[in-house]
Amino acid sequence: MRWDDLAEDPAVNGESALFGASAVTTRTFDSPEFRGVTFHEVRARSILNRVPGASRMPFEWTVNPYRGCTHACVYCFARRTHSYLDLDTGLGFDSQIVVKVNAPELLRRQLSSRRWQGAHVAMGTNVDCYQRAEGRYRLMPGILQALRDHANPFSVLTKGTLILRDLDLLRQAAAVTDVGISVSVGFTDTELWRTVEPGTPSPARRLDVVRALADAGIGCGVLMAPVIPFLGDRPEQLRDTVRAVAAAGATSVTPLVLHLRPGAREWFTAWLHTHHPHLVERYARMYAEGAYAPRWYQRRITRQVHELAAEYGIGPAARASSREAPEPDAPRAGHHGAGPEPTQLTLL
Ligand code: SF4
Fold it and tell me: For the chain, which domains are there?
């Protein structure tokens, strides 16, 4: 592995050459939840990462305490970033997890720098910061405390129910700065979930997170991503999902169609061959031009979801108390199969 060249996806994250080879400690844990998973503990040199200027991402600064993700979503665009470590972008991405063990102390130090201007910090932009590893390493409490103590605005995008462990900290932070939380739920079809997002909490449990956050007075948006063509895009599927999102008390719902960048594309196509071989050709045509579905398709999905959202009462009125729900910056592009496709980004 090229530990001396631990670059994030340059389209997502500007960090590079973070670690020296001597900084790596490799561990496994003999518990059912981590069976088959290897952790590579490293001490990062920097944790506040500037998104390259050319990026179309709507945030400038990110914090990513992990690399790789045991949530194992087949379509995950961050898979490609594992190749920068000479790690496998398929199963390796799901099971070889890099942990930046000094992330909290490093962030606190960097936030204290006179050069730091207090810009918004986005988390969950590359991989999920509330993936299972966080249950053991507990990096997020220290990160949230540092952000809270500096009254530094931030957002979190996650599929992890573990975020509720940090509810008090989120509440404390929201009292002093802008905090945006978004949960990713692309569909509520449990059959589809089991095969395409095998390591994640179920969509129902993620919506419970939305509900719990709403009950705690912390507005939470839902990134409805990815909407998966031919598998999760039937009108009744869209309706079921938006209805459930509304019932959970989400402040917004933002649909984003699946995109398939290199790394994710090969893995997703192999999955299609196994689970839905009859769709392989349709996908080849749908994504013939590249990573994105055709614009007409994206617009159609966006319109359908917007109409359903209006019908179920999710919209601007519900987001009026924006102090707690600045989700526009959080979910527009993240690890959850969401692409920075401008036509998709209109918030309701
Ligand atoms: S899409 Fe998000 S939750 Fe799923 S594997 Fe990627 S980083 Fe993890």
Answer: 3-344 (3.20.20.70)
